[in-house]
Amino acid sequence: MADVLFTAEVTVPASREAAYASFGGGRWADWTFDARVDELRPGLAVRVAFPVGGMPLAGVARVHRVLPAQRIVLRHETPWRGRVIIDFEPDGAGTRVRLVTSIEDGSIAPLARLLGSDLADDPDEQVVRIGLLTSYRGSAGVFGPAVENCARLAVDEINADDGVNGRPLRLVVGDDATSPATGLVELKRLHLRHHVDMVIAVHTSATLDAVRPYARRVGLPYFYTPVNEGGKPAGRLFRWGEVPGEQLRQAVPAMMREHGGKGWYVIGNDYVWPRAVGACARRTVESEGGRLLGERYVPLSTSDFAEVLESIEDSGAELVVNSLVGGDAAAFERQLHAAGLRQKVRSFGALLDEATRDHIGDEAAAGMWSVLGYFMDLPTPENREFIGRYRAAYGPAAPPVSSVTESVYEGIHLYARTAKAAGTIEPASLVGALPGVSFTGPRGEVSVTPSGRLRQPLYLAEAVTGGFRILAEQGLAGTD
Question: Looking at the domain that runs over 244-372+463-477, which CATH code has it been given?
Answer without folding.
Answer: 3.40.50.2300
